[in-house]
Amino acid sequence: MNEAALAAIDDAWSRTGRRVRLRLLRESDLPKRLEMTNDPQVQIETLGMTVGERTPYDIRSWFKTLSHDPSSRQIAVEDAQGRYVGDFDLHSLDARQDEGWVEPFFGDKEVRDQGQQAVAHLLTDAFETLLAYLFDEMRLSRVMVECLSTHPVLLQVLHDLGFSDVGRIDHMNGVISHVMELRRDARRVPPTTLPGGSRRW
After folding, report:
1. 77 is a domain residue
2. What's the Cα-to-Cα distance from 191 to each of 101, 109, 129, 175, rounded to whole Å?
3. 92 or 191, which is more confident?
4. How far apart are CA 157 and CA 137, in angstroms?
5. What does DSSP assign to residue 86?
6. Percent of the chain with pLDDT over 90
7. Which residue of 31, 38, 63, 76 is surrounded by the most CB atoms within 10 Å?
8. pLDDT, tens digit, for every residue of 133-149?
9. Which domain CATH number covers 84?
10. Are 95 and 84 in contact (CB under 8 A)?
């Protein structure tokens, strides 16, 4: 792992894709993140169930804790209009194994209201932009993601990107966690649409 590339993810760092721009998560993003965190649909996609409402104190504590973790980075995602629409928690980076975990969090209502195709396009470009940095600049060999069965759009995007299932966790409530990995040599550009202009979900 190129540790200098990890250290380079600071307040001045950014990477631009076709539809998104990645940058470090800021404290000014927290009110929007709290709003998305308390959205019942986002909770189902990321937690598998609805939970009690989080508070401003909760989100600030979460941000402060992760900001002091040297093996973690919170990467904000902006859309083409410069709006913060979600983020990646890049964590558990292991220099010996050249691997790390990515926890995606996307809950912008304006994007979701455009339909699953719009969500898939944004997720795909955000992941492709991040993976290019992780594999090509940080030189990771493997990236891991856990995706719940309650988020089929994300699950399809991950499969399209070349991620494969390496484990499953049955939470005994109808929700399955898919543990997925992507190795550097297996990365691929996913199809935008299927024949006829439709997409599988």
Report:
1. yes
2. 24, 25, 16, 27
3. 92
4. 23
5. E
6. 88
7. 76
8. 999 999 999 999 999 99
9. 3.40.630.30
10. no
**pLDDT by residue (tens digit) across 22-80?**
999 999 999 999 999 999 999 999 999 999 999 999 999 999 999 999 889 999 999 99
Closest CA to 13 of 109, 129, 91, 167: 129
How many helices (H) and strands (E) in the chain? 7, 8
Q: How many domains does the chain have?
A: 1
What are residue 185's phi and psi, to 5 degrees? -80, -5
pLDDT of residue 187: 85
Q: Rounded to an integer, what distance in angstroms lies between the CA atom of residue 65 and that of residue 15?
A: 24
Residue 190 inside a domain? The answer is no
- Interval 171-190 mean pLDDT: 89
Residues 141, 98 contacting (CB under 8 angstroms): yes
CA separation, residue 167 to residues 10, 163, 180, 181, 197 (Å): 33, 12, 7, 9, 32
Helix (H, G, I), strand (E, B) or coil at 189: coil
Give the predicted TM-score (pTM) of the model: 0.91
In a domain, 102, yes or no: yes
Q: What number of CA atoms fall less than 13 Å from residue 141's CA on the CB side?
A: 6
In a domain? residue 55: yes
Domain that holds residue 108: 3-141
